[in-house]
Amino acid sequence: MKRAVLYTRVSTVDQHLESQLLDLRQMASQRGLEIVREYSDKISGTKAKRSGLDQLMTDARHGRFDVLLVWSSDRIPGRCGTSSKYWMN
After folding, report:
1. How far apart are CA 70 and CA 3, in angstroms?
2. C-alpha angle 47/50/52, rounded to 5°?
3. Residue 15 — φ and ψ, nearest 5°?
4. Cα–Cα distance measured from residue 18 to residue 38, given in angstroms and rounded to the nearest whole number
5. Is 28:18 a contact under the CB 8 Å cutoff?
6. Comparing C-alpha atoms, which of 64, 5, 10, 59 is closest to residue 37?
7. Sign of the alpha-carbon torsion through 55, 84, 50, 70
8. Which 3-state string (H, E, C) describes the chain?
9. What does the pLDDT profile of the chain (89 residues) look like in tens digits?
């Protein structure tokens, strides 16, 4: 069974981490993935420092999971300059 992690981020008060997590947990279950960790941030995507994403990237470099599930691809990148730091590591 592949090890999966979930990443959620909200940046406004009308967004909810829990609804994103419910969708991602269902997706993991449907695909037969084992969820080994959930990472979350409550911060604007334009901020360079995001504790949840920073920890996710550290764990990725250490091979602690096989699959990353994200509710929407816009939950990760922020500004292009910010995202390039992560994807080039």
Report:
1. 14
2. 155
3. -100, 150
4. 11
5. no
6. 5
7. negative
8. CCEEEEEEEECCCCCCHHHHHHHHHHHHHHCCCEEEEEEEEECCCCCCCCHHHHHHHHHHHCCCCCEEEECCHHHCCCCHHHHHHHHCC
9. 999 999 998 888 888 899 999 999 999 999 999 999 999 998 765 555 778 988 999 999 999 999 999 988 765 654 434 444 444 33
* Exposed e or buried b per residue across 51-65, where buried means at least 16 C-beta atoms within 10 angstroms of its C-beta: ebbeebbebeeeeeb
What is the pTM for the complete model shown? 0.78
13-29 core/surface letters (b: 16 or more CB in 10 A; e: else): eeeebeebbeebbeebe
What's phi and psi for 3, nearest 5 deg? -90, 125
Burial (Cβ within 10 Å: 0-12, 13-18, ≥19) of residue 67:
middle
